[in-house]
Amino acid sequence: MENSNSYSPYSSSSVDSTKPLPSESSVNLSLSLTFPSTSSQRETSQDWPPIKPRLRDTLKSLRLRQRGYNTALFVKVYMEGVPIGRKLDLSTFSGYESLLENLSGMFDTSVICGTRDSKHHVLTYQDKDGDWMMVGDIPWDMFLETVRRLKITRPERC
Amino acid sequence: MGASSTLLMVSHGHCLLCLLFSVVRFIYIKTFNSFDSFRIKSLPSLPSLSLSPSLVLMDRRFPFKVLEHIFSFVDSNEDRNSVSLVCKSWFETERRTRKRVFVGNCYAVSPLKVARRFPKMRSLTLKGKPHFADYNLVPDGWGGYAWPWIEAMAARRPFLEEIRLKRMVVTDECLEKIAASFRDFKTLVLTSCEGFSTDGIAAIASTCRKLRDLELRECIVDDLGGDWLSYFPETSTSLVSLDFSCLDSEVKLSDLERLLSRSPNLKSLKLNRSVTLDVLESLLRRAPQLVELGTGSFSDELDPEEIAKLTKALSELKQLKSLSGLWDLLPEYIPLLYSLCPRLTSLNLSYATVQMPDLIDLLSRCSKLQKLWVMDLIEDKGLKTVALCCKELRELRVFPSGADLDETDVTLTEQGLVSVSEGCPKLESVLYFCVQFTNAALVSIAKNRPNFRCFRLCVMEPFAPDYRTQQPLDEGFKAIVERCKDLRRLSVSGLLTDKAFEYIGVHAKKLRMLSIAFAGDSDLMLHHLLSGCQSLKKLEIRDCPFGDTALLENAAKLETMRSLWMSSCFVSFGACKQLSQKMPRLNVEVIDEHPPKTRPDSSPVERIYIYRTVAGPRLDTPEFVWTIHKSPEVGVSRLSIR
């Protein structure tokens, strides 16, 4: 592969075309080293390959079915302090955002992922090992495979 | 001819015969020859028209009515734009006669100006967000609000009949305003729009008595239930096309049946997924005149009697040319469609997860097919059948069934596309997702099909070279742009060096839109494109390793284009500022969801969106968008009204 004989003031950070072929996982790594932007979100990114959201959702449920899962993925959601839980089909959501949106609507309060806050309700989940984890740490697909229950924690108790 | 009789009524003596001759010749040229002589090369200069001087002089004595009549033959907006640059009186006449207005970037011009300029406007088409918004590259809330346009038109152009919006934010308020303001409103087509609920749709349905087309194509709608369907007037409707395929919730069967029964003009019906297979027969019975049908889900269990009835109902659709929907199509139901196949010109199987052998049974019967959208489950073998049987094919799209790179258990390779390019002489538009490709295949394809107008290849593995030779795909794309002289739209992928873009810059003379991801080595790549590609209007780039130098060197080019999008590239903040100062009629928008605390000139920006505009910086930017100010002292300003 010939190197282009061009001058670039940023040549120190340009992609080295004499590198060996990157496999998929190292593509992510080399991109995040060379491109100074949002590549760290690439694992959970929904922007490659370039297909429209509706098709992407259709493919997700297709994949789940092919892996031997039922298309529906029901889990129970509890709000801390409320004894009755609600049932939710996680396969109808395309990702964390739509899940949070739906939960916020369902429980009539804003529910967020991640950072513990004295103001917000934070979503946690119990994985297949029985441990309680913060929602949002792992890619959505992995989350679907491991989630068993959801709990929305109260602000003060986080 | 009409023009000559009009002229004869005006008594101006003998010179009128010269006029007459020129006018007739003019009309002859307009209607039968190509319009290339009317194309302008760049904004400020006059078109290279071959007009006799006498015709230009004559416009002063040319009654407005005559010019108006001549211009009524000029349909295309590009030609009308050229015509309006000839002289003041032509500008005036043209603007008073333009009925269909198209604005490719809603921020390029102010709604008020457009409303004032075209008093006879009957149809408005607008586009908002950049194309990459389709792939989640534009954060929510970026902009593209329809409201200012709707408001302006409602106040000034109450005779507006058609509104078509693409990638815009449309609220219920907008829809209610449309319903309330345009008495003769006929057509609403929303493509990839968001921000409204089914309440807004209900408002349109109930109030627009002359509604002909209501199409929601791939919109994100706040679905509050299926009631909206019951809001159509109880009397017979004038509906010609109805598309609610993007809605989720169920509509009442009785509402739908009654609507179909009282819509005798309905030609196109696209149902949503929640319309189950068992009710399809009852719907089709009430609309046997359909030309386009989008079914709902095609997977319920039907008993033999129901199957027989449905088969019959489908076979009664004698006018049906286009079929889509077909969610979860079960292989055992494919024979139900056989009666439709011989007449089908358009088939969309993107949601039909049907495997190859069943697809072959279906496609081998579709000899008139012109447009096929299918998943890669069709495999090379299925595409070979298409090449053999579908000789009328003009457009092919093959989508990936496994949206991750590790899901490739499907035998779709470059060979599939090669077969179709060999077998289908009319093929001119392709969108093809594939894991890897070869230069040899691209060269074959180019040789077979020099008539491509749209060629979009997405090699899904970033930086994937020719898998046989390990070379970049430069030579392959070179063949494409060299041979396909009419190429208007191109998407490239795979491993590409700057050389590929040199070829594109030099050879792709008619290219208007180019999409690039994970390619190139340096600034030279962008430089080749911006200094070449005469007709380039839209350029979108992601994850390519360059930025500043090429951008600043070719700044003038950007004013001849509609827009440039760059994300995850190496563009520095300083370059954005310089560019903005250099080019007064460009809006340089920096989109940064995670902005740094300080912004030295050398800091990179996440995304930039640059577009030409006569409306100045927009006032509706969200907190993560900065329009770079023109004057250096001000630096960055975020003019926003909250």
From TrEMBL, chain A:
<feature type="region of interest" description="Disordered">
    <location>
        <begin position="1"/>
        <end position="52"/>
    </location>
</feature>
<comment type="subunit">
    <text>Homodimers and heterodimers.</text>
</comment>
<feature type="compositionally biased region" description="Low complexity">
    <location>
        <begin position="1"/>
        <end position="14"/>
    </location>
</feature>
<feature type="domain" description="PB1">
    <location>
        <begin position="72"/>
        <end position="157"/>
    </location>
</feature>
<comment type="similarity">
    <text>Belongs to the Aux/IAA family.</text>
</comment>
<keyword id="KW-0804">Transcription</keyword>
<keyword id="KW-0927">Auxin signaling pathway</keyword>
<dbReference type="InterPro" id="IPR033389">
    <property type="entry name" value="AUX/IAA_dom"/>
</dbReference>
<dbReference type="Pfam" id="PF02309">
    <property type="entry name" value="AUX_IAA"/>
</dbReference>
<comment type="function">
    <text>Aux/IAA proteins are short-lived transcriptional factors that function as repressors of early auxin response genes at low auxin concentrations.</text>
</comment>
<protein>
    <recommendedName>
        <fullName>Auxin-responsive protein</fullName>
    </recommendedName>
</protein>
<keyword id="KW-0539">Nucleus</keyword>
<dbReference type="InterPro" id="IPR003311">
    <property type="entry name" value="AUX_IAA"/>
</dbReference>
<keyword id="KW-0678">Repressor</keyword>
<dbReference type="GO" id="GO:0005634">
    <property type="term" value="C:nucleus"/>
</dbReference>
<dbReference type="GO" id="GO:0006355">
    <property type="term" value="P:regulation of DNA-templated transcription"/>
</dbReference>
<dbReference type="InterPro" id="IPR053793">
    <property type="entry name" value="PB1-like"/>
</dbReference>
<feature type="compositionally biased region" description="Low complexity">
    <location>
        <begin position="29"/>
        <end position="40"/>
    </location>
</feature>
<dbReference type="GO" id="GO:0009734">
    <property type="term" value="P:auxin-activated signaling pathway"/>
</dbReference>
<keyword id="KW-0805">Transcription regulation</keyword>
Automatic annotation (TrEMBL), chain B:
<comment type="pathway">
    <text>Protein modification; protein ubiquitination.</text>
</comment>
<dbReference type="GO" id="GO:0031146">
    <property type="term" value="P:SCF-dependent proteasomal ubiquitin-dependent protein catabolic process"/>
</dbReference>
<dbReference type="GO" id="GO:0019005">
    <property type="term" value="C:SCF ubiquitin ligase complex"/>
</dbReference>
<feature type="domain" description="F-box">
    <location>
        <begin position="62"/>
        <end position="103"/>
    </location>
</feature>
<dbReference type="Pfam" id="PF18511">
    <property type="entry name" value="F-box_5"/>
</dbReference>
<dbReference type="InterPro" id="IPR041101">
    <property type="entry name" value="Transp_inhibit"/>
</dbReference>
<dbReference type="InterPro" id="IPR032675">
    <property type="entry name" value="LRR_dom_sf"/>
</dbReference>
<keyword id="KW-0833">Ubl conjugation pathway</keyword>
<keyword id="KW-0927">Auxin signaling pathway</keyword>
<keyword id="KW-1133">Transmembrane helix</keyword>
<keyword id="KW-0472">Membrane</keyword>
<keyword id="KW-0539">Nucleus</keyword>
<keyword id="KW-0812">Transmembrane</keyword>
<feature type="transmembrane region" description="Helical">
    <location>
        <begin position="7"/>
        <end position="28"/>
    </location>
</feature>
<protein>
    <recommendedName>
        <fullName>F-box domain-containing protein</fullName>
    </recommendedName>
</protein>
<dbReference type="Pfam" id="PF18791">
    <property type="entry name" value="Transp_inhibit"/>
</dbReference>
<dbReference type="InterPro" id="IPR006553">
    <property type="entry name" value="Leu-rich_rpt_Cys-con_subtyp"/>
</dbReference>
<dbReference type="GO" id="GO:0009734">
    <property type="term" value="P:auxin-activated signaling pathway"/>
</dbReference>
<dbReference type="InterPro" id="IPR001810">
    <property type="entry name" value="F-box_dom"/>
</dbReference>
<dbReference type="InterPro" id="IPR041567">
    <property type="entry name" value="COI1_F-box"/>
</dbReference>
<dbReference type="GO" id="GO:0005634">
    <property type="term" value="C:nucleus"/>
</dbReference>
<dbReference type="GO" id="GO:0010011">
    <property type="term" value="F:auxin binding"/>
</dbReference>
